[in-house]
Amino acid sequence: MDKKQNINKDKKPGVNLTWVYMAVIFILGFLIFNDSFSSSGYNKEVPYTEFQEHIAKHRGTEIKIEKNSSTAYLTINPDQVRTVFKRSVKEVGKNPTVSTRYGSLDKLEGFVESVPGMHITYTEETNYFNYFLSFILPTLLLVGLWFLLFRRMGSGGGSGGIFSVGKSKARLIEKGEGTHVSFKDVAGQEGAKEEVKEIVDFLKNPSKYTELGGKIPKGALLVGPPGTGKTLLAKAVAGEAGVPFFSLSGSDFVEMFVGVGASRVRDLFRQAKEKAPSIVFIDEIDAIGRARSGKSAIGTNDERENTLNQLLTEMDGFGTNSGVIVMAATNRVEILDSALLRPGRFDRQIQLDLPELSERIAIFKVHLAPLKLDESLDVDFLARQTPGFSGADIANVCNEAALIAARRNSPSVNIQHFLDAIDRTIGGLEKKGKVMTAEEKRRIAIHEAGHASVSWLIEYGNPLVKVTIIPRGRALGAAWYLPEERVNSTQEHLLDDICSLVAGRAAEEIVTGQISTGALNDLSRATKEAFSIVAYYGMGKEVHNLCYYNEQDNGFVKPYSEQTAQLIDEEVKRIVNEQYQRAKDIILSHRDQLLQLAEMLVEHEVVFTEDVESIFGKRPWKSRTDELLEEQRKEEEGEDAAKEDKE
User: Which of 401, 424, 489, 497 is the most buried if burial means most Cβ atoms within 10 Å?
Assistant: First the structure.
């Protein structure tokens, strides 16, 4: 019973249709009343000269003059009805009249007096119907329009109409309701989960920490690239924490009215304090938390800054152990105001990075659970195929694989469906119908064979997965690799990456004697990586041990002189040219094998690792990813053995 009462209490009042029906009935009744009890029947408005003619020919004897409307009415005799109206007496009804607007009352009176037998009556009657249509009805419509407008505008903040504009739009998840998301649904990000679990424990058992003199943190900021699970982790907190959870977005504070954002912040924290212990979660906090500008420039948003100031005041205003913790999420922490990030407001920054190999395996297991999978599916292989993928990307791959399997009427989702889904996610949809000449197809095959050959023959080249010349998206061909997941990279690693990037153009020049525009993306990536080597990592010969990286670089100010800029340009040119010549030397020494691989590509359009291995032989260098997987398997086997011994 209480639950039903709460539901009815939370419902927003709608428009009462009874009042609408009553208004319609009133208007119809007024029209009927006005028509039924009107003092005159049928009326015809005529010019003033025609009105004088009717009087002169004695077609009526009674004249009524309305002074307030400057209108004169002549009641037509029954025997003159057909002459005046061209209608029968039944059609015009009782007491038909003709009317006109007069300019001068004195002249009209003088004319009527000159005609014998005429009677004049004076009235100041008001036409209530015209008055209603001209004044009252537009006023009612305008008031009703404003009422509906303010009602809609205020509906987002509560049931108080316009007075609720400044109310918080936060969604409240009460204790016991939850979001049906728990920490088990958040795979990977174990470090972030541990910190968040500690916050939940703070709220459930505050005395455990305060008795030792500890202070509950006031805020936790979830930081990471898009798709890494910041909002999902917050949902898990809402599901796990047995306390009220207020959830809203940073844009919910932004409004066109001055002072509304600050008012909503005050209302949000007032509600949170009333229900303490509680959690407030603000998603995309950079919408209001952007760093404040010292100058009032064109385009600045004073309302946003006022909202931020109120948020800073509220976060630093409530008591230390009041039991209200603020959580927020952003992927642009570098643009947030420094006052927002200081201890005492957001005491902790919880970093959520792109998942590593072991974390991707755990994420795949979560998203593969609801799918009908082929028994031979290798989860470790799928994780290796998706380096750099976020949790959202992996969820999308699993869903796309299921859709592909259903499209092909497959009884289960197998490894090929996942590979096709990964290819589509990375490169886009296949364009098998794209028309290419035999010469263009061979040039593309040579270009891709160049990438595959050099990356296979250098020590730190990424292990090859497959090469294709089937157009995808904007690319005419592509080579898929398994990038090594390194904690950091040496200069040799970076130079080998550049060498494999420029190998496609080098192969074109050596085999065909010409170069094409197909290397645009390769050259762009190689140039950026060479620039990073010199300007960011301090690995240049002339510009050595210096870093000019600036997180807040706006592109207008360079943190180095023109002379240094010239040195950087020369270093970048030298690095790219040296690696281009190195790629050419490797290709020249393996020209026949490259041509064999290119011909295989022309014939089959797709070449896999086994095909490249049959041409070049096995790589003498062991993959670091394989080493990590072996170590992980050994650890799992050791844990299983330890469990068996205990049992």
Answer: 401
Average pLDDT, the chain: 78
CA 458 – CA 583 distance, rounded (Å): 10
Please, which pLDDT band fits residue 258 given cuts at 50, 70 and 90?
A: low
H helix and E strand count, the chain = 27, 14
User: What mean pLDDT do residues 585-613 have?
Assistant: 88
CA distances from 458 to 63, 349, 495, 499, 621 (A): 114, 40, 10, 9, 9
* DSSP secondary structure code for residue 476 in this structure: S
For residue 301, count CB atoms less than 10 angstroms from its CB and return exposed for 0-12, middle for 13-18, buried for 19 or more.
middle
| C-alpha–C-alpha distance, residues 67 and 488, integer Å | 98
Question: Which helix H or strand E contains 466, and what residues bound it?
Answer: strand 464-468
CB atoms within 10 A of CB 371: 17
Token output for 581 = 């010549």
Amino acid at 170: A
Catalytic site positions = 448
Looking at per-residue pLDDT, the higher value among 350 and 126 belongs to 350
| 170-191: b (≥16 Cβ within 10 Å) or e | bebbeeeebbebebeebbbbee
pLDDT at 228: 85
pTM over 0.70: no
- Dihedral over Cα of 379, 383, 384, 385: its sign: positive
In sequence order, what E strands does 299-426 have? Answer: 324-330, 348-351
Of the pLDDT bands very low, low, confident and very high (cuts 50, 70, 90), residue 33 is low
Mapping DSSP to helix (H, G, I), strand (E, B) and coil, where does residue 158 land? coil
Structure tokens at 15: 């428009």
Helices 491-501, 438-457: axis angle to 10 degrees equals 160
DSSP string, 397-459: HHHHHHHHHHHTT-SSB-HHHHHHHHHHHHH-SB-TT----HHHHHHHHHHHHHHHHHHHHST
175-184, 366-375, 379-388, 598-607: the lowest-pLDDT one: 175-184
- 138: preceding bond cis by omega (within 30 degrees): no
Q: How far is residue 406's CA from residue 457's CA, in Å, rounded to a whole number?
A: 40
pLDDT in tens, 285-315: 888 888 876 554 444 457 778 888 888 888 8
Lookup: tokens for 479: 């080579």
pLDDT tens profile 45-73: 889 888 888 888 888 878 888 877 788 88
Maximal CA-CA distance, the chain: 133
Whether residue 263 contacts residue 173, with contact meaning beta carbons closer than 8 Å, is answered with no
Please say if the pLDDT value at position 468 is more than 80. no
Q: Which residue has the tokens 């706006």?
A: 554
Query: 346, 340 in Cβ contact below 8 A?
Result: yes
Q: Give residues with Cβ within 8 angstroms of 527, minimum separation 6.
A: 572, 576
Instruction: Return the pLDDT at 575.
Output: 95
